Amino acid sequence: MAEVKGKVVWITGASSGIGEAITYEMARKGAKLILSARRQEELERVKAACVASVQGLVEENVKILTVDLANAASLEAKAKEAEAMFGVVDVLVNNGGISQRSLAKDTQLDVDRKVMEVNYFGAIALSKALLPGMISRKNGHHVVISSAVGIISSPYRTGYAASKHALHGFYDGLRAELHDDSIKVTIICPGFIRTQISVNSITGDGGKFNEMDDAQANGIAPEAAARTIVRAVEKEKEEVYIGGVKEVGGIYVKRFFPSLFSQIVRKVKVR
């Protein structure tokens, strides 16, 4: 078991939702943290909450680094900044991302590109930038917050599902490539977690969805999801599913009974 205590953990999307919850759990476990998102003020809020709530956590062990995952040209430099903060990044938690809520026929191609740019290219750009250091040390861990729709897919989320499927293709291959370098890859597949992801989703024309999905509102608490995620990191799990019977069950139905899954998914409530 590889404890996160004392490890340097860089978390993207740390300003809210699952990323914020992972931040508190990692802090409680004694990790040194680099918190990233676009919103400086929200990162400051999360940092202050960490320091106030975790006994023994010193402010110097929580750093803030604003990152825009859509700005691909900036990400290599951001990775270098992250490495300079503590001298190393042991664990990268690629959590930052956006979702989409619209029918494929109503979704502009630029919207599909934006979702892919943030969720896929943003994640792999940071991983690639950290690889030289991890390979030289023969140590490192890439944690990817994918989704149940990285394995299955449903109507109204085609662009989002595509970006998450792409993560699985890349990181499954990366895991095999880096095995002899002792670098780990963990893919986390949450189902419905009680966050603002649907509210903040973008629509077919790039606008904000501004609605809470019923399933999201009734989903698992992000704090519970974070505990599962951090345990998975420490146990160096390769792939972990988090969610209710419908989401996790759907993954297994898709795997073993694809035709049945196809019939089921046509009837699911998507909003």
TrEMBL record:
Residue ranges annotated for the Ketoreductase domain, each copy included: 7-196
- Pfam families, per the entry: adh_short (PF00106)
Q: Does the keyword Oxidoreductase apply?
A: yes
Origin: domain of life: Bacteria
Q: Supply the Gene3D superfamilies for this chain.
A: NAD(P)-binding Rossmann-like Domain
Which keywords annotate this record?
Answer: Oxidoreductase
Check the record and name the InterPro entries matching this protein. KR_dom (IPR057326), NAD(P)-bd_dom_sf (IPR036291), Sc_DH/Rdtase_CS (IPR020904), SDR_fam (IPR002347)
Into which family does the record put it?
Answer: Belongs to the short-chain dehydrogenases/reductases (SDR) family.
Q: What is this protein called?
A: SDR family oxidoreductase
The protein's organism comes out as Imperialibacter roseus
Lineage of the native species? Bacteria, Pseudomonadati, Bacteroidota, Cytophagia, Cytophagales
